[in-house]
Amino acid sequence: QVHLDESGGGLVQAGGSLSLSCAASERTFSNYAMGWFRQAPGKEREFVSVIGPSGTIYYADSVKGRFTISRDYGKHTVFLQMNSLNPEDTAVYYCVVRRRNYLINVINVRRENEYDYWGQGTQVTVSS
Q: Are 18 and 12 in contact (CB under 8 A)?
């Protein structure tokens, strides 16, 4: 059974930093896009950032310049370094894996239904 093990959430003050990680249970996940979505209280789930199998990176405009996504292919793990956090970043962050035989692009990267595996989510709370 596929499993995504997320860690790194927590409580931080505005302006602070947190780092999330997500380890996939299958080594083949290193061949697929991995990344993060988030859902704030009372809001719809939204795209945050994804890194493709060849290293192509996509960010939501709201996090560009503050968040950095990276991956360790050998450990089939994806990371999200979050800096300059603000209360609007408060949300449950979900790790995602996209296991498709066609390329990810700037249009489909933001669609929830493009992702085949989801983690359970990790809470990030930013206090003002």
A: yes
Helix (H, G, I), strand (E, B) or coil at 56: coil
CA distance 76 to 84: 27
Report the pLDDT value the prediction gives residue 117, as an integer from 0 to 100.
94
Side chain identity at 114, as an amino acid letter?
E
41-99 pLDDT, tens digit per residue, is 999 999 999 999 999 999 999 999 999 999 998 889 999 999 999 999 999 999 999 99
Secondary structure E strands in the chain = 4-7, 10-13, 18-24, 33-39, 46-51, 57-59, 67-72, 77-82, 91-98, 117-118, 122-127
Tokens found for residue 68: 């950095």
